[in-house]
Amino acid sequence: MEHSRHLQSRAVNHEHCPNDSTSHGNGHTPRPGARPEGLPYYFQPPPSAQRHAPLAPFTVQILDYGTAPQAQAKQERVTQACSQCRLRKQKCSDIRPCQSCQENNLCCEDADVPPPKQDRMMTQLQKSVKGVSDCLSQLVDQFGEWKARVDSRLPPSRNHEIMSPLGVQASVSIKQELHHVTEESPTERMGLPGNHTTPAHMLLDEWLQMSIFCVGVPYLRSLVDKGLRVSDYPMQLEQDRGLLRIWGIGEGRDSDDGAQGPGSPESSTDSEAPSPAPVRKGLWGYPSSEVLAGTRVPGSTPREYFPPKPRQENGLGADGRPDLRRHVMFDLLRSYLEIMHTFHPFMNENRLRRMFNDFSDQYSPDATPLNAHSPASVHGVKRKRSESNLEGLPSRRGEIERSLCNAIILLVLALGKVCSYKDPLPAPQDDPHPHVRSERGYIRDSPPPKGSFSNFNSNISDENCPKNIDLLPGLAYYAYATDILGNQQGGNTVAHAQAMLLAALFFSQYARVLESWSWISNACRVVLVLIKADYTKLLRVNSERRPTWSSEERYRIDSILYVYWTTLQLESDLLAEMSTLPPSGISRYQSEIMYPEGVNENRSQDEVSNSVRQNDGVSAGFREGLIMKLYSSQSFLRVVLNAAHDALYSPGRCIDFGPTSFNEVANHACTHMETLEGWRKLLTPELVWSDDDYPSTDLNIARVRAKYYGGLYMMLRPYLRIAIHTLNFSPPPSRTTGVTQHSLPSRYGSAAPNRNVQMVDLDEDQRKIIGIVCRCIDAAIRSTIAFDRVGEEPGSQYQYFQLTRRKRLIVTNIFGTLHAQFGNMLVLASVYKSKLYPLLPSDTWLTRANLAALFKRTIAVISEEAQNSPILRMDLEILRNIQEKQGLE
């Protein structure tokens, strides 16, 4: 009992000053009365509604002793008294001001009490974090000041201008008036985007009016039935055609060669199942000279087909080897320099000529005999003349060494051979094994040769199945060169990039898209390695420092720059029409890498004349200064067009082609168009032209104009799309309707006597829209006919839309050029059938007669190259389908 009373006394005396408050002035919840040491207790918390009301007394329950009497409840005082009550040692209430301070008219303030130990640790931690944060803020401010000082020293052209690579006149920067073209860091650094919607075949899916153009084309219908899009036909056809069998016959993807054939479930797991027996006279051929019934060991020369006519078009000599006679080699070098080198001068001409001299001295059969110390006595072993060689031919000079230098020479010979071929290029023979072709195969105009798989291997003679190396000009040189390159795929030097570019240009002449792209991709890989190795030296900020470098270093850097800008042009030109191919990423550096030294400097006419006089007969009269200006123009236009592709056609932009986005598209188009016009104003006199001029007779000038008009059309095409599909023209009542064009002749071509022109009062915005639409139509037509007079006399007569060119068109990317013209025809035909067409001015080029003439000439031009490209054959089929349905024959 005494112990019970003792506990009760401790519980009661704990609160010696009764107080009904629950919290003090700072809003903290007061602790309940202190419990007896070692004894738990339970109590019910007060309702929230009674927060500031006096608490009802509560009972402390003694758990250990059930018979203890209840302790008398005491009122609890506040946890912390104010400073005045603490000083006077008075009771304090939780009301502020407290009752004591109110009665004595004192200032009631809470006393500063040292926080508990845990609170002190938290305070110290907060102070430490705040100190670190302040230190970081100072570092950020200092870094910002340093960056501002560095940026102020850099030339503004890298971020706010596009510099023209032309000479003194064109060194003036072309300002960009809208920042969205030049200040979008994430997407601009990517350069040319992948999966953009620029290609011509994408129109068939995106333009609603063109859906009728595909009706009646069986292959396109089969794609849709298989769940594919109509616009997938280029990649499908190009993949289905397979590879060109360099040493063999035709092209294709053979499933019977033992590597690609699908094995049956029974035999796929049988390790003892015999693999397909190789066929000696297979489709892929052999790089051997005389494999006759196994009597000779395969060598390094193909067994050739000997047609009855002299063998002078394919690059093979009478003995079945590449023709390396000295005069033939230098004729082909001249052909290369006059055409391909003018397009892309990434090879040093003087060094190339020295390489040809050395190669001819060593390997030409009619060269001066070499002395005992000649490299020919060291490199390779001379082969004995075979009995098949014709009498009177000079003896061979030994097998060609498998060096990169020799591969470059052979590829230059291949390009020279294909450039000297003026007729339409022949195509590989049809596959003699039609059953191994893909089920989605493509159509050829010529029927397949007679015979079956079995009799091909036994009975078909070479006269019936000529090999590709016998048919295709330049392929013999290409075959030897790529055999060398195949062993040097891991090379990462400038020479490796040059060789790969030459191989890509050769296949591009035959419109073999994927094979050409493969070589371009390899060159891009090498270029990226070269750029990263010398990145700081290649930046444009170092252009002014080049005179301080040694001549060897300047030559080395210029060689890298030439292959970079050539690779950029070739890849961009190809991806512009085949956007499903993945870009390499070299275009992300297009605004940072400087131009080659010969491109930037404006060489005087005396320097050009002296350079020409120093050259021998191979390159006499070569317009070196003009070559650099042309190359500068092509490089600059490529950068501008890549930026336009990204801004207007990139899938990441997601431009809504609705009426609400009209101003956005117009701003983008006008910005890029002003850049293009600024470049044109800076052209030198040799390149200046007027829109009223006839198409140029010079191939290089025509290339520049075609690039300009094609770029202008590409920039304005989204504008035209919105105007046709989404804008609703509601003009005021017309003053005169139904006026025919009998008395309103077109400026160019023929007038359409049955065209109704709506003579209406359009408001200012509508007239502006019609004006831009007309400019887009005009650019599409001019880019289409840009090459129609190439090779003609400058003063010759010309009738618009009449093809007068008498030689095969030779450009860098023949597929891209003709596929773009196909797209121009699709757009023009769509505009002609749109609701917008009656609102066009009376002197528009787009009349029925002119459109029919354009279809006729475009079909004729594409037909020249269609036998080498399944994509172009499908383009022809679509154009003929439109021509028939629209009555444009």
UniProtKB/TrEMBL annotation:
Transmembrane segments: none annotated. SUPFAM superfamilies: Zn2/Cys6 DNA-binding domain. Keywords: Nucleus. InterPro entries: EcdB-like_regulator, Zn2-C6_fun-type_DNA-bd_sf, Zn2Cys6_DnaBD. Residues 81-108 form the Zn(2)-C6 fungal-type domain. GO terms for molecular function: DNA-binding transcription factor activity, RNA polymerase II-specific; zinc ion binding. Gene3D superfamilies: Zn(2)-C6 fungal-type DNA-binding domain. Residues 1-52, 249-321, 367-396, 426-448 are annotated as: Disordered. It comes from the Eukaryota. Residues 430-443 have a biased composition (Basic and acidic residues). Pfam families: Zn_clus. PROSITE patterns: ZN2_CY6_FUNGAL_1, ZN2_CY6_FUNGAL_2. This is Zn(2)-C6 fungal-type domain-containing protein. It comes from Alternaria alternata.
